[in-house]
Write a structure and sequence with these properties.
heterotrimer; A alpha+beta (160); B alpha+beta (340); C alpha+beta (644); B: 340 residues; alpha+beta; Aldehyde Oxidoreductase, domain 4; 11 strands; 24% strand; elongated; C: alpha+beta; 7-stranded mixed sheet; 13 helices; 18 strands; 17% helix; 17% strand; globular
Amino acid sequence: MTKTPVRFVLNGTDTGVFVDGGANLLDVLRRSVGDLSPKYGCGQGTCGACTVLVDGLPHLSCLVLAEAIDGRRIETTGGLRQGAQLHPLQRHFMDGFAAQCGYCTPGMLMSAKALLDRVPNPSRDEVIEAISGNLCRCTGYEPIVDAILSAAAELRGRVA
Amino acid sequence: MAIHKGRGFACINYPIGMNLGGDPSQALVHATPDGKFMVTLSAIDLGQGMKSVTRQIAAEAIGVPIADVYVDTADSDTGAHDMGSFASRGTHRVGNAVIRASIEARNQMLEAAAEELEVDPADLDTDGKGNIHVKGAPGRSITVAETAIAAQFKQGRTLSGRGIFLIPPSGADPETGEMTPVTCFAHAALVVDLQVDDETGEVTVNEINSAYEVGRALNPKMVEQQLIGGAWMGVSHALYETTEPYYPARDHGPVDFNAYLMPGPGEIVPHNIAVLERPAEDAPYGGKGPGEMCANPVLPAIANAVYDAVGVRCDTLPITPEKVLRGIRANGGVRRRGAL
Amino acid sequence: MSSIEFRKDLFANERDDNLNEVGKPTIRQDILGHVTGSSKYYDDHLFDGLLHMRCVRSPHHHARIRRIDTSAVERMEGVVRIVRPSDIPRNLNTLLSLINFGRDDEELLATKKVAYKGEPVLAIIATSERLARDAVSAVRVDWEVLPHVLDVEEALQPNAPVVNDEYPNNTFDYHERYDHQKLRFGDVETAFANADHIVEGEYQMSPIEQAPMETCGAIAAPETNDRIVCHTSTQALFFSLGTTAKLLDMPSSRLHFVGGTVGGGFGGKVDSLVEPMAVLGAILTGRPVKFMWDRAEEMQVGAPRGAERWRIKDGVMSDGRIVARSFTGFFDSGAYTRLSSYAIIKGTGHLPGPYSIPNVAANVYCVYTNRTPATAMRGFGITGVDFSIECQMDKVAEVVGMNPIDLRLLNAYRDGDMKAHRRVAKNTALIECCQVVAQKAGIAIRPDLAKASSLIGGGGDRAVIPETVTDQASRIGDRRRGAIPTEPLAGATSKGRIPAGTSGEPVVAAEPQREDMRIDPARVGHAVSTVPKSASTSGPVTTPSVVSASATTPGPSGAVRPAPVPTVSPASTTPARPSAFAAPIPPRPTTPGSPAPAAAVPADETPPPSPSTPGGSPHDPGKPFQQGVRRPGVSRFLSGTRRR
C-alpha cells in the first residue's frame, strides 16, 4: 500500500508521519504518532470522543482524512497542559467533578477550548452549543457545562 | 394545540450486591518503607469511582491521611480476586474487603508503634493525620512514617493486610421463592414535573425533585455525580432509548448515535436532590451503592406524569411522541388528571 | 440548575458523622489522568505488529449453517488467519458457570446454527481493521433459514420454534423442576375475592443499549514465560479471565489480565465475549491481536438490557390498603441465557416492591427468543419491574381516589415487616424518602402519614408469614404438550398449603477470617446490633443500638452461620402438611452448628445434593479452569461442558 508523507504541527511540535491512503486522523494520531488522548467512540462522527482542533477549530478526527492535515496545526488534550501547569479547563473539570469514566473528557475539553479561544465570555447556551456534538453517558452534562463556564470566568479574570 | 403540564411520582428500593451472595471480593494492602499505603485490587473502575471510594475507605480504616493511600485496580497478577463491578456490589463488597485488609495492616502498625513507645497496642490510636498516640496522652506519639521505618528496618515486621468479604451463597426455594436476596437496600422517591405538547406528542421534563437514601454518602460529590447522571439516564430510558423501537419486531434497530437517541446538554433537567443516610449494618461505613438505583424511579415517575398531564397511560417504554399522540387520539383528546 | 442537600437530621442517631476521610468530597484519584487524556483504557496500549480481528455474523434471526466458503478470503492481502469454531478447544459456555448457575448453552462461534441476527460464525484476523472488514465481507455462507420466534409469549406456545437446543422448551429450567421461578406468600386468590377493587395492568420494558462511550474490546499479546497478556474493557476481570481459560482449555496461570480503567460499562461489559477471542487470536498467530466492537456491533450485537413484560393484578381495599398482588413476568433472554435467568431470581426476590402486602404470588419466566441475548444493565433485574410496580401504584391510587404519595406511605414497608421472600425488613427508609420529596416538591400529604416512620409500626402482625397456597403447575416441558396459563396458581390441578410460620435464617456475611481483620466497633461509624442475630427471627427487629465505643463485638456465639439452604420455617414441617407434601422429608446436609433446616420440596424430588467432596484427584498445574463452587441450595445446577 502506498504511504503518503504528512507533516503537521501537533501541540506545538513539528511532526511527520507516513500514512496509508484513506487512513483517518484518529488512527494516525493514536497508532502512528502515539498521542492516545483522542478516543475512538464510534468511528461514525456521532459521539465526539475523538474531537481535536485543526487550526483552532474542532474536528472529528475519525472523519478527517489524515492526508488532509498536511501543513495544519493540530491540538489535542494531550497537549493542553502547559508544562506542569494545568489549563483552567482541566482544573475546573477536576474540581467540578465533571468526569466519571473520563472517556469523553478529552474530546469534551477540545470542544470547550475551541469555544473559549474564540468566545471568552460565553453564555450557558453557547457552551451547550459548543459541546452538543460530544456525547457523555455518565454525567448528565450539567457538571461539564458548569466547569466550562467557571473556567471561562477564570480565564477572563487572568486577562483583566 | 397546547402545552399540558403534569406531575408524576414514584418510589423504589434497591437491593445492594449480587443476588443470593456467593460473590467474594478480596483486597490487599501494604505499606511502603516510610508508611504510605498501597491498596491493590482486581476490582474495576468504570467511572463509578472504585479507586476513589476505596481509597477513602482504606485511609479511614487504617487511620492515615488520604494523601498517604493510593489504590491500584485490575491487574490479575497483583490484585486478588474480585467478582467484578456489577450488581451495585462494588462499594459494599470491595469496600468491606478493603476495611478488613486495612484493619489487619493497622493492627500491625499499632503493634510496631507499641514496641517503639513501649506501651500496649490496645492503648494506641491514630489521629488520621499521620500520627499514632497513646489514648488520652497525645504527647506520647510516633508518626506513621517512623513506625513503618522501625517496623521494616528494625523490627522485621510487615504493615500489610489481606481482606475478603463474602455473603455466602444460597439458593431460592422452587415452591415459595424464599430466599435471602441481599443484605441491604437503598431507597428513593422522586417527583417529576413535565409538559406534553399535544400537537407534536413531545414530552419535556422541566424539573425533578428527589430523595435518595444511600446509607452513607462516602464521598458526597461522587454520590452527586451518580444521582445527577443516573437520573439523566432515567429520563433518557423513559423517553428515548431502545435498540428495538418496534419490539418485538427487530426492524429499525439503531446502529449509531444519530438513531439511538439520548438527551444532550441542551436538555439538562434541573434536579433538586435530598440525600438521606441510614447506614446499613454490614455496609462499609454504612454506605450502600447509589449508582444503579438512581435511574429506576425516573422511568415510572415520567410515565405517571405523562398520564397526569394528558391522560395517556404509556405502559410500554420508551414514551415516544408517536405513542403519546396515538393515546391522545384514542382517548378523543387530552384528559388531564392533576393528581399532585 | 440542580441542587443537592444532605439531610443529616434524619437517622442522625444511627450515624457517627465525624469520620476523618469518609464523607469528605475528596477529588477522584483518577481525575488527573482523565483531564489530561492520559488515563490508560484497554486500547491505549500500543503493540508493534498489532493484528485486528472481526467476525462474520448471521444476517438471519434463525438459520442453519450449511457451508462456509472462505476461498476468496484465503487469497486476500493482509489476511493472517481465519478463526473457525474448531479452533476453540471447548466451544460452549454459559457465563454464570463460574458460580455454577445454569447449563452451558452458548458457543463462542456458532457451529451448526445461529439463533440471532448478528451471531458470529467465523472470525478473520488481518493486518489492519480495514482489511479484516474487507475479508469478512468476502466470506460466503450458505444459510438454511429456519422459522424464528421473537415474542416471549409466542415462544411459550407448544409449537414454537426451538431457539436454544440446550433449553428446548424455550424457557430456562428452574431448580430442575419448573419452567419459571415461583413466589408464593399467603393466599392471593382468597384475598382477591375479598378485595374492594381489582386493578390490573400490563407493562413492557424496552431493550436498551448500555452505550458506554468506549466500546467493548480486548487486546491480547504473547507475554514472557509463555503467557498471554490481555488488556480488556471488562467490568469483571476474573469473570473474563475464568471464562477465557475455560473456553480455551488452558490453565489460568498462563493468563495475565489487565484492565480496571474502563470507559463506562453500565452492565454491557460483563459478558466476556471479546477476551477469549482476542486471546485465541494471539495464541493462533503468536502476535498481538485486537478484537474491538464497532459502534454498530455495540448497539445490535452487544447484549442489551433485556425487554421485560409484566402483568400485575392487585386486590385493593377502599382505604387504599393493597391486600394481594400477583405478578406474571416474562424476561426476554434472547437466544442464550447469559444473565437473564439470574436476573429473574433477583427480580422475584424484589417483589412486590417496597410495600408490605400480606398476599403475594408470582410466576416469572426466562424465555428464549431469536434476538440478541440480553445481559446486565444498571438496575439489573429491577428497573423493569420497578417501572411496572410504580405505574401500577399510580393506577391503584386513581382507583381508590388517593394522593399517589399517600398511597405509597400507607403501604410502605417498615422495619420488622415480613417480606414476600420470607425475610424480615430492616434498615428501611422508604417512608422518609417519600416524606422528604413531598416536602421538596410542595405536595401536601395526609397528616397522619406525614408523621409516619420506618422505625415505628412495623413488625408484630406484619412480621408473620401467612399460611401459603402452593401449586406444582408448569413443570419443565409441560408447555410443549399443550398451552397452559402462565399466571400464578392458574394452571394448578391441585394446590397445597404451607402453614403460617416464621422465616428461615437470613444469610449474613462470612465472619472476618481472623480476629485482627475485624474492625473495632467504635470505629465502624454506625450502629452495630448487639443482639445475636438468631434471636430476631420473628417479631419486630431489634433496633440497632446507638453508635458507641462500648458496643460489644459479636462473639463466636452470636456469629450466625448462614443457613445452608433457604427453607420455609420449621413450622411448615409439622404433620399438618397437606397430602401433597406429606411424604417424609429427607434430611439435608447442614453446616455444623446451624439449626437443622426443613425443606418444602415435594416428596417426589430427587434427594438433595451432597456437598462436593474436596480433593479426589491429584493436583495438575495444567488443569484448565472448570467452574465455581457448588452452590448449596435447593437445586443442583448442572454446569460444565455439555456432551453433544
